């Protein structure tokens, strides 16, 4: 769980300390308030986040968030069935797209992962059902963690299935964002909202 240190923006409502990294960025604050940590069961949103977490490697999330609409446009709204059919022409198109992070390895990884996702959904029924089977126990989220046993298990299994850019630290960030645990700081005003959303949420499967 996140440490009990927080950031106090202009509205006087305390948020998680990491929001301070983008002080004055309303889009970043909206992401924290309305998305981060709320449970997600939509396959397309889960695939999008897995893909964007891979692009974030070595960069800041703020950079990726500011490019999210361009990523969505370039990757067919992260409809993994469509992305799975992308070929070399699409790779070259994306490498020319100044709105996204133009990294061939990461672009090709998203296409590969889309193909692996089609296989996984055929086996598991949905990406959400698979992802939520790795929901960590409360004690598996120590303070200051960058990865946990649950994120290591998810990473190992995805790699075994041929996915790329899915290391345990990346998977922990993904789990935090998609609501598999409530990692808002205790003093954060959004923590209680996320906790309520998690209580009302029924994990797929």
UniProtKB/TrEMBL annotation:
Keyword entries, A-Z: Glycosidase, Hydrolase
Species: Roseateles violae
Matching Pfam families: Adenine_glyco
Enzyme Commission number: 3.2.2.20
UniProt cross-references to SUPFAM superfamilies, sorted A to Z: DNA-glycosylase
Name of the protein this chain belongs to: DNA-3-methyladenine glycosylase I
Gene3D superfamilies recorded: Hypothetical protein, domain 2 (1.10.340.30)
InterPro entries in UniProt: Adenine_glyco, DNA-3mA_glycosylase, DNA_glycosylase
Biological classification of the source: Bacteria, Pseudomonadati, Pseudomonadota, Betaproteobacteria, Burkholderiales
Gene Ontology MF, one: DNA-3-methyladenine glycosylase activity
